[in-house]
């Protein structure tokens, strides 16, 4: 750990710092968890369920961006685990049953008959079709895919159905703050199961499951952006941990798309492929000459600075220059796209093309990667109306401002100004809609 990273982490020490590996209940109560398993002492004392979730599945997808082959086949398992009835609602059992609702939990009721309905699953599916889908697509053709086509595909692919359940539960947690913890726990369980099943499906990618794998790759990004706020872990995580995870997941998706792209292009989801990075506008100028001049100076900074650390290799500067050039192209593309679902495309473009070494330096709080993520937040702020991104930009910018050395502070002025302008424009737009 370098001296800057150490000093930043020292400044952020609080009277209490939750462990990343603590149970969900202790995180929600914002108390320290002793991490005893299967049930921590705090939950034992309160006689409450004790659920551990380390975002294993998300981390596995993120690591796909750092390995040469993402197609290592995991152990096979059933598509859906048994679903006991606990605490008045159906909760899926994680395979091997070693981390969810074990000690001191009421025993499950007898297995339901073949005609029994899983009302909790039906609730999540209904919410996804009726409500969440409306927040994932704006154009009629995209909306129809999320509302009808993708749920129909999920009927044949358990990993996609679990992912739909997870995102729907996150959305409900966002809409119902009083029930946030309950729905977050359900979302986490479904997402972990979805990730396990997706790895097996990816190892056997074919025309039959290509559309399901592609749909899943989009949903997992939405889940990654929305989950820290829903889980209440934003304040207890390491600085920029959420940004690093989202970027690594988006980078990992680069390995998911190419093997199945041809099949997706021949199927009903071809319109969604436009959300993925393609040809970006790099040989154009900003509509505002002042922005164009600023970015020229910004490119010089990223092409010449080595974070003021002489131990960095020359390749560091080359990676910074490449990342800055791609970021500029993403800005120009975002400027040329009208409001709508395609507005998310430039977000993917920059993150998917980052080198793993760049993301590692971001995790170590090196100044230039911090400054670039602050500029990326300007693009993210353009879609702040989407529920899964709400609060993410402000939280990330706050962390960057806290971690960035003072000598780099001037490079936050432009993104901060742009984000504020977008916030004001968005607020006026809401007021205008409300008054019409």
Helix proportion: 55-70%
Largest sheet: 2 strands, antiparallel
Mean pLDDT: 76
N to C succession of SSEs? HHHHEEHHHHHHHHHHHHHH
Number of DSSP E strands: 2
Domain count: the total is 3
Shape descriptor reads: globular
Q: Helix/strand-derived class?
A: mainly alpha
Enumerate the strands of the largest sheet in spatial order, edge to edge or round the barrel: 1-2
Low-confidence stretches: 13-18, 63-107, 277-281, 431-436
Instruction: Determine the number of helices (DSSP H or I, runs of at least 4 residues).
Output: 18
Supply Rg.
22 Å
User: What proportion strand?
Assistant: under 5%
Terminus-to-terminus distance: 55 Å
Annotation keywords:
436 residues; 56% helix; disordered C terminus; 2 strands; mainly alpha; two-stranded antiparallel sheet
Characterize the structure shown:
There is one protein chain. The chain has 436 residues and is mostly helical. It has 3 domains: 1-52, Zn(2)-C6 fungal-type DNA-binding domain (CD2-Gal4, Irregular); 53-102 and 117-275, no CATH class; 289-435. Helix content is 56%, strand content 1%. It contains 18 helices and 2 strands. Helix 7 (158-175) packs parallel to helix 9 and helix 9 (210-231) runs antiparallel to helix 10. The radius of gyration is 22 Å and the shape is globular.
Could you give a short description of this structure?
The chain has 436 residues and is an all-alpha fold. It has helices spanning 3-11, 24-29, 41-46, 56-63, 119-130, 140-154, 158-175, 180-203, 210-231, 241-252, 257-265, 289-304, 314-336, 345-352, 356-363, 367-381, 392-403, 413-435; strands spanning 85-86, 89-90.
């Amino acid at each position: 750990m370098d001296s800057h990273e150490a000093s930043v982490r020292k400044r952020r020490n609080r009277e209490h710092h939750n462990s990343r590996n603590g149970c969900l209940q202790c995180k929600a109560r914002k108390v320290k968890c002793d991490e005893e398993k299967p049930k921590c002492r705090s939950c034992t004392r309160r006689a409450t369920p004790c659920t551990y979730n380390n975002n294993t599945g998300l981390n596995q997808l993120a690591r796909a961006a750092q390995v040469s082959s993402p197609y290592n086949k995991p152990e096979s398992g059933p598509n859906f685990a048994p679903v006991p009835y606990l605490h008045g609602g159906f909760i899926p059992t994680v395979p091997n049953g070693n981390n969810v609702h074990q000690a001191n939990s009421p025993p499950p009721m007898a297995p339901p008959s073949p005609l029994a309905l899983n009302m909790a699953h039906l609730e999540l599916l209904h919410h996804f079709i009726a409500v969440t889908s409306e927040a994932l697509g704006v154009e009629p053709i995209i909306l129809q895919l999320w509302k009808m086509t993708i749920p129909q595909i999920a009927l044949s692919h358990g990993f996609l159905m679990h992912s739909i359940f997870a995102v729907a539960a996150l959305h409900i947690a966002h809409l119902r703050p009083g029930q946030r913890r309950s729905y977050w726990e359900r979302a986490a369980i479904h997402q972990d199961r979805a990730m396990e099943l997706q790895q097996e499906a990816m190892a056997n990618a074919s025309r039959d499951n290509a559309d399901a794998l592609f749909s899943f790759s989009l949903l997992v990004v939405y889940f990654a952006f929305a989950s820290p706020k829903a889980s209440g872990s934003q304040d207890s995580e390491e600085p920029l941990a959420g940004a690093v995870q989202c970027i690594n997941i988006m980078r990992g998706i680069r390995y998911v798309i190419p093997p199945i792209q041809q099949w997706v292009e021949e199927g009903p989801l071809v319109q969604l492929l436009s959300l993925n990075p393609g040809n970006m506008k790099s040989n154009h100028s900003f509509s505002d000459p002042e922005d164009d001049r600023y970015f020229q100076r910004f490119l010089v900074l990223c092409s010449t600075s080595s974070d003021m650390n002489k131990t960095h290799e020359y390749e560091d500067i080359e990676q910074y220059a490449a990342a800055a050039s791609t970021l500029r192209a993403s800005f120009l593309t975002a400027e040329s796209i009208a409001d709508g679902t395609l507005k998310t495309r430039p977000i993917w473009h920059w993150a998917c093309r980052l080198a793993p070494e760049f993301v590692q330096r971001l995790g170590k709080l090196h100044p230039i990667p911090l400054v670039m993520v602050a500029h990326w937040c300007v693009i993210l702020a353009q879609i702040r109306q989407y529920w899964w991104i709400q609060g993410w930009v402000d939280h990330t910018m706050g962390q960057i401002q806290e971690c960035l050395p003072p000598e780099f502070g001037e490079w936050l002025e432009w993104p901060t100004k742009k984000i504020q302008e977008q916030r004001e424009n968005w607020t006026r737009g809401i007021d205008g809609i409300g008054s019409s």
